[in-house]
Design goal:
single chain, 214 residues, Umud Fragment, subunit A, eight-stranded antiparallel β-sheet, four-stranded antiparallel β-sheet, disordered N terminus
Length: 214
C-alpha cells in the first residue's frame, strides 16, 4: 500500500481511474515530457560548456605537416593552453599556436592556425651560421633537435656583425624540421598578440594514444 506522503503531488491526477501499472495517463505524459526536457537541457548545457572550454580554456589541434618533426609528427594531436595564457609570458623554446601570418606566401593552405617553436624574444638579436643559430651573440642550445639537423635556409639579412633584432612585441619562430619548415625566415617575426596559446601536451601520436607533456 502506498503512503500518500511518498507520492510527488505534482504528478498526481485525482480524476484519472486506477491503472494496472499503477500510473495515471496524466502522470505518464508529464513524466515523459519532463524526461525529454531534462535531456534537452543536459545536452545544451554540455554543448555550451564544451564551447566555453574550447574558446577560453583548452583547444585541440592536429598537425597536418612535417615542419615540426621530430617533436610533432604528421597527424599528431596536441592540446593547447588558452586559459591564463599571456603572450608576454612566452619563453624561448616554447611551442605555440598562432594565427596565420599575413605575409605568408609559402605553398600550402592560405588560412588556418600554425604551430612553431619560439627561438628569439622581443628585443633579442638573432643570426645563423652554418647549421647553428645565435641569439644575443650566444650559440642557441637546442636539445630538442637531432645533432645532425640541417638548418636549410639561413636567417636572411643577418650575420654576426649585423644580427637581426626582433621588434618589440614580436617573436621569431622556427619549425623543428628546419630544412623544410616555412617560418619566420620566410614571413618574418610574428606579433605576440596573434599567439593563441602554448602547446602543453601531445595526446595522440603514431596512430595511438600517448601522454607527452611540454
Amino acid at each position: 500500500m502506498t503512503d500518500p506522503a511518498d507520492v510527488d503531488p505534482v504528478d498526481v491526477d485525482p480524476a484519472a481511474p486506477d491503472r494496472p501499472d499503477g500510473a495515471s495517463p496524466g502522470r505518464r505524459r508529464r513524466g515523459w515530457k519532463r524526461t525529454l526536457v531534462e535531456t534537452v537541457v543536459t545536452v545544451l548545457v554540455a554543448v555550451v560548456l564544451a564551447g566555453l572550454v574550447r574558446t577560453f580554456v583548452f583547444q585541440t589541434y592536429f598537425i597536418p605537416t612535417s615542419s615540426m618533426v621530430p617533436t610533432l609528427g604528421v597527424y599528431d594531436r596536441i592540446l593547447v593552453q588558452k586559459a591564463f595564457f599571456n603572450w608576454q609570458d612566452v619563453r624561448e623554446g616554447d611551442i605555440v599556436v598562432f594565427s596565420h601570418p599575413p605575409l605568408d606566401d609559402c605553398p600550402g593552405p592560405a588560412n588556418g592556425d600554425l604551430v612553431k617553436r619560439v627561438i628569439a624574444l622581443p628585443g633579442q638579436t638573432i643570426y645563423s651560421s652554418g647549421n647553428n643559430i645565435y641569439v644575443d651573440g650566444k650559440l642557441l642550445a637546442e636539445p630538442y633537435l637531432p645533432s645532425d639537423d640541417p638548418l636549410g635556409m639561413a636567417i636572411p639579412d643577418a650575420s654576426r656583425l649585423h644580427p637581426f633584432r626582433v621588434p618589440a612585441g614580436d617573436f621569431y619562430l622556427l619549425g623543428d624540421n628546419r630544412a623544410i619548415s616555412c617560418d619566420s625566415r620566410y614571413w618574418g617575426p610574428i606579433k605576440g598578440s596573434t599567439i593563441i596559446g602554448k602547446v602543453i601536451l601531445v595526446w595522440w601520436a603514431n596512430s595511438h594514444p600517448v601522454f607527452r607533456t611540454f
